[in-house]
Amino acid sequence: MNTPVAASTSPRGVYLITPDEADTVRLLARVEPLLANGATWLQYRNKTASPALRQAQAAALQPLCATHGVPLIINDNVALARAVGAAGVHLGAEDGDIAAARALLGPDAIIGTSCYDSLDRAGTGAAAGASYVAFGAFFPTTTKVTRSRASVDLLRQTAALGVPRVAIGGLTPDNVGPIIAAGADLVAVVSGIFAAPDPVAALRACLARFQDPIA
C-alpha cells in the first residue's frame, strides 16, 4: 500500500473532484494529466459506482496520486479511505462524525466537512477537528442536487476559523475569481474542468486566478 501524501497545512489551489466515470482506465487517463499540471488535492467521488468499483477505482487512484505528490481524499466513505491508504475523507451531513473518522484514519488525515451555507456548521466542524470546511453551492450545478446557495460573504465571515475554506458548486475558470478574492483557499471543481474542451487548460486557468483573482 502506498503511503498517503502529507497535506500542506495551508493548501491553496484547485481541489479536483472526479466525475462519475465507469471505466477505470479512462478515469485514470482523465485524471493523470491534471495531477501532473498542478491539481492541489484530488477527491474520489463516484455516486453511480458499485462498492466493488469504488474500491477498485480508489485503489487505482492512490498510487497515481502518490506519484504526483497529490493527496487523495475519498468522498463519504471512511472505511474505503482507510482501506486504500488515502490521505483523508470528505464527510457530508449524513456521512459520520469527524472525531470517529479521525480516530480511524489518524491524526494526520485530511478530514473535510460540508457546511453548505451554514456559518454555525462551519464553526462546529472546525471545533471538532475538521481539516477544512466546505461551502456551496455558489453557482447552479448539474453535478448533484443542491439545496443550499452559499455567498461570498460567508467566506469573509469564516476567515477567523483557522482552517482552510473550500468553495464548491458550479465553479469554472470564468467565475472563480470573486470566490478566491473573498477568501476561498481551495476551489473544488468537477465539470468545470473535466467537461471543458481542454481540461488541462481549464485547470491552469483556475490556478491562474489565485495569482490574480480579478484578472
- Name the shape in a single word: globular
Rg computed from alpha carbons, rounded to a whole number of angstroms = 16 Å
- The number of helical runs is 9
Estimated share of beta-strand residues: 15-25%
Sheet of most strands: 8 strands, parallel, barrel
Question: What are the low-pLDDT stretches, counting only 5+ consecutive residues below 50?
Answer: none
Helix content, binned percent: 25-40%
Which H/E pattern describes the elements? EHEHEHEHEHEHEHEHH
Strand order in the largest sheet: 1-2-3-4-5-6-7-8
How much is the average pLDDT? 93
* Class derived from helix and strand content: alpha/beta
End-to-end span in angstroms? 42 Å
Please provide the count of β strands. 8
Question: What does it look like?
Answer:
The protein is of the alpha/beta class and 215 residues long. 39% of the residues lie in helices and 17% in strands. It has nine helices and eight strands. The protein has helices at 24-35, 51-68, 78-84, 98-105, 119-127, 152-157, 176-181, 191-194, 199-211; strands spanning 13-17, 41-44, 72-75, 88-91, 110-116, 132-135, 165-168, 186-189. It has an eight-stranded parallel barrel with strand order 1-2-3-4-5-6-7-8, surrounded by five helices.
Summed up, what is this model?
The chain is α/β, with parallel strands linked by helices and 215 residues long.
List the helices and strands and how they pair.
Elements: E1 13-17, H1 24-35, E2 41-44, H2 51-68, E3 72-75, H3 78-84, E4 88-91, H4 98-105, E5 110-116, H5 119-127, E6 132-135, H6 152-157, E7 165-168, H7 176-181, E8 186-189, H8 191-194, H9 199-211
Helix pairs in contact: 1-2, 2-3
